[in-house]
What we know:
By secondary structure, the chain is mainly α. It has one domain (about 40-165). Helix content is about 70%, strand content about 0%. The chain has nine helices and no strands. It has helices spanning about 1-25, 40-50, 55-60, 65-70, 75, 80-90, 95-115, 120-150, 155-165.
Amino acid sequence: MKAQLVCVCVVLLVCGSASNGQEASTHAGQGTPEIKSLPAAEVQGYLEGREMGLAKVAELNGYPAPAHVLELATQLQLTPHQRSKAEHLNRSSKTAARLGYWLVEAERRLNVLFAKGEADDEKVTSLVRRIGGLEAEIRLVHLRANIEMRRVLTADQIKKYEQEHGQASPQRQP
């Protein structure tokens, strides 16, 4: 078991190192090979670090997204400090994009395993666990940004945000 774990780690490191050179060309706007399990728009969303509904639970419960706060900066009358913080939090999408790159690569490898008829339990389990972990980390990046954004805004700004953004929050527990 220990030897298998070491082998899996080595394979992931080698695959990750081999794809490092591809990262620059992928991010430079070149096309990505087909991944049957992910629509092209979703692949692009991951590569760009977009929120894609991953923080919807936060938005619907009064935790504004930094990007949307910036869009409504004038209406919310953000202070310079609040604007700076929102810009900083919005840049967290770069972290999501880096994680998204690795998620797309893992999905691509999973697709290749099946396309070549090389899928087996061990390989698939490893990749699916990696994909699941990356999905969780990407979601956490977005949720944490929303949590921090809420801390920076006043109650009146959050209420105004909800009105302007078209999301009336249900009654929240204190």
